[in-house]
Amino acid sequence: MKTTPGIGDILAETILLETGDITRFKGPGNYASYCRCVDSRRESNGKKKGENNRKNGNKYLAWAFIEAANFAIQHNDKANQFYQKKSKATNAIVARKALAHKLARACYWIMRKQQDFNEKLIFS
To answer: Secondary structure of 56-113 in the HEC alphabet?
Structure first.
């Protein structure tokens, strides 16, 4: 887990302990949703039909991945390039949350397959 940019000792422990058994999630999208890294919206034909439980999920994982995104922006060139490109298209908060989403998906596969972080797969 510590091979992921932005994740050190404390964040790795927090993510592992708050996640629990990774096999309870069907896929990386479900895990990212549990980590509050995606929007909860209901739309049909481009029209808003309501809001889902936006507070559903684990607030500590949400915090951990935002912190990891902050550190990744500072210490990893590829993560910084992704953040800069995304922040030009949207605002800084959305760009940071998008990077946190990428890190959450990467951590899902790291925990699921027991392998190291591969920068080419996430920032291609």
So the answer is: CCCHHHHHHHHHHHHHHHHHCHHHHHHHHHHHHHCCHHHHHHHHHHHHHHHHHHHHHH
Q: Report if pTM > 0.90.
A: no
Does residue 117 surpass a pLDDT of 90?
no
**Residues ≥6 apart with Cβ < 8 Å to 90:** none
- Domain limits, the chain: 9-122
**Residue reference for tokens 């592992």:** 16
3-state SS assignment for residue 32:
helix
CA pair distance 20, 47, nearest whole angstrom: 37
Q: How far apart are CA 19 and CA 78, in angstroms?
A: 26
Record the tokens describing residue 38, joined without a space.
Answer: 């995606």
